[in-house]
Amino acid sequence: MGPGNQRSRTTSSPARTWQLPRALLVLALLVTATLVAAPGRAVAAPSLPAGFVVRDLPSGQDGLLTDFAFAPDGSWYTTGKNGRVAWVSPDGRARTLAELSVVTVQDLGLTGLAVPADHATSRRIFTARTLLVDGRWTMRLSSWAVTGAPEPTGLADERVIWDLESHADVHTMSSLVPDPDGSLWVTIGDAADFRYVDERALGALDIDDGRGKVLHVLPDGRGVPSNPFYDPADPSSWRSRVYASGFRSPFRMSLDPATGAPVLGDVGWNTWEEINLVRPGANYGWPCWEGATRTPGYADLPGCDGVVQTPPLHTYEHGPAGTSVTGGIVYTGAAYPERYHGAYFFGDYASQRVYTMRYDAQGQVVRPPEPTGFGVENGLPVKFAAAPNGDVVYADIGSSVLKRLAYLPGNRAPMAEATLVSDPATGTVTFDGSASADLDGQPITHAWEFGDGTSATGPRVVHTYPPGDRTYTARLTVTDPLGATGTTELTVQPANGTPVISLTAPPADRRFAVGETVTAGATATDREDGALPVTWSVRLVHCSGGYCHDHPGESATGPSFSRPFDDHGDQTRLQIVASAVDSAGVRVQQAFEAAPRLRTLAVDPSTPSAVTVNGVARASVPVTVGATVSLTAPTVAVDGVATFERWSDGAPRARTLTMPDQDVVLRAEYLTPIDRRYATDPQVRTVLGAPAGAEAGDQELRYRPHAGGRMYWSPAAGVHEVHGAIVGTYLGEGGHLRHGEPLTDESTAPDGVGRYNHFAGGSSVYWTPATGAHQVGGDIRSRWAAMGWERSVHGYPRSSERSTPNGRGRYNDFQDGGIYWLPGLGARSVHGSIYQTWARSGWEGGRLGFPVTDETGTPDGVGRFNHFEGGSVYWTPRTGAHGVEGAIRDRWAGLGWERSWLGYPTSDEYSVPGGRRSDFEGGSLVWDASTGQVTELRR
Predict the structure, then answer these.
(1) What is the pLDDT of residues 102-127, one digit of tens each?
(2) Three-class SS state of 356
(3) CB 312 within 8 A of CB 363
(4) How far apart, in whole angstroms, are the C-alpha atoms of residue 306 and residue 299?
(5) Are strands 856-857 and 511-512 parallel, antiparallel or unpaired?
């Protein structure tokens, strides 16, 4: 595993100073080497844009941190290359849960981790690691039960989901990404050697091989039924699991929050690093392609013949920008400046940089990465994820800590809340600040000042005051990890009895739908004052995108509280406080929270599409039962080609939905032009049969294989099919890479005998039962067309266009004759008896060479001729066809050709003692080899 491995090399870059592969998970010595400047090069000082800071978070790893994932409660799990799985509490306490068996050669080790969406109830996690099985390096995906409650203490009940052999010590299984719907995304590298052209890398193109793929699976390892190659008869096959193919080292992947599409970094070999927005069924070309270019060394392998590539979203060349990409995440928080809202944060391990870029719903880059990086020299990033408030967090393998990118101007101060209970007999007061909270979802610390010169820390503390009837002011200060603080003060009379509130509230596990009534009751009494009035206050807390804010609400006085639960967005909740104040000014309170009953609304577009829910593009969102949400499916999908067809329930494209008390999955059906033609054209369905693969291509050209042929689309040509023998020839001659997309469906030729397709590159393929299917193109095709296509003297092609044996020109054979092309001369037609005579002379390789004219009528209206580079061939019905060459031809021409006393030739040139001779109707011409003279002989 690793952010990639180049050929061995030595460079002056401090991130690539070793001559072993630039693996991510290398020995500690190599990691240390990356932190030391090479001779003559100064290490750049750590830098970030103004307002941003990096805050370190513990990982629980003592070296080579590889991955991490946040849990729903704000804690996080981490993995180390050496097999350690650790857990870290929200307040930073770390604990080792397990030491798993692993192999740590080069990239191998414990490399991947995922906390599924249902972790709070399932208490399971996933790991990816490499270990020895029967003496072989084996990539293993496992599910584990987390033991211990409420805090994790260990791992148990390993369930092996699959084992897959690794051919080499690099490019293993790395990314495990939980989907909100409970499924799991997995990336696996090609597991091939980086040191040479390793033909095993071609497995990345084979959908029956798990290597070099993005996989989408259920928790037990079966493929997701919506996968492009899913086989219902064998759901656990690699084919059923594959979502996309053609990756070298797909190192770190995330899901686009708007479309649900996978976004990953694919580490290159010698030249290019890639960011890919992954389409279902698409092939990203490795090993035949690297970046957007053919890969030297691999491209010439037979397995790369005809392999096309889905273009990367973004590439950068090896150099100062880096040589080892680490895929990142789209920022969904609200604390960063507007420029970074919706930006994709990623890194380069080798250059120690973090970058940001933006791309649109169609997968086009609209803001390229910063030329010198967003952040420089802030660690070696090997994984990116979002903190509970949306802040970008990355794992730094160099220091084995998590780095949190915080923007201080946007950080909200925590809110301090405190209550107290006093014991007048002893002067002991119990302080409780556990209701304090941070609206950014960050853990906080508690510091108390008791007003008598003493202090303490912790959410709950007990303090005994000196004897006496004195009033004190206690202060609680809460602080978040970024240093922001909130305070509150309490009036304390240790000798005064604290009021007591008795609160009757809904059960803690009760959840409310919109419109349901929240009711509660409370009474307050005081030892000195008796019954006290109860005051109720309401604060509405709204969270969206990992960022929370509050709306202070109404207040009322009385023994009871009643209010309908309402909705204010994703996760609205009500914080309801009952409080009382005695005559000494001591205030006490009790609170409860009315939380929403949430169900998941998921949008499942047939093609990745940025469907908006309440104006925000997202693929899955929790919604309060009874809330009304608006959804709009864009007219055009992310691929820029597919267009909206229908919602699965028939609603309009822009629609509303009142959330029921159950999870809802709405499918937005998108059809590409190919889909639409296939769905509406019964004849095409009959001819082509069932689809045999996913649609591939881009906004300029797309195609889909079927059992009996292919369908192609381009904006200029529209949708056309190619099938039968014609598609076999078309693909064998280079397909659309050489000849472009079809401009016609297979059609019947005007003579009613043959069939053909025309193609955008200027070629056609013609078929008859007698000749089979052959390609004709370029100038040769133009010459044939000018002569009348298949109704010309040539008839149908008997061969596809080929290079002549001497390599000088190109030709097509036809039922009668051929058309030959020579650079600078163009295409010339030869047929009939003249063609046969030329063939006897050795074609273009004989003395006559290439034709320089088409067959032409003679001036006397009787005969026909072709001129060639080295002579001519003349024909009449009475004489047949005969060649005339060299000096003999020159003398005949000087005498007046066929209008001379010689008439037409009656023989080819032939050898005689001392020279060469040609016979004509009126005599002969003899060439003397010793003198070079031509003698005329009359009959």
Answers:
(1) 998 888 999 999 999 899 999 999 99
(2) strand
(3) no
(4) 10
(5) unpaired
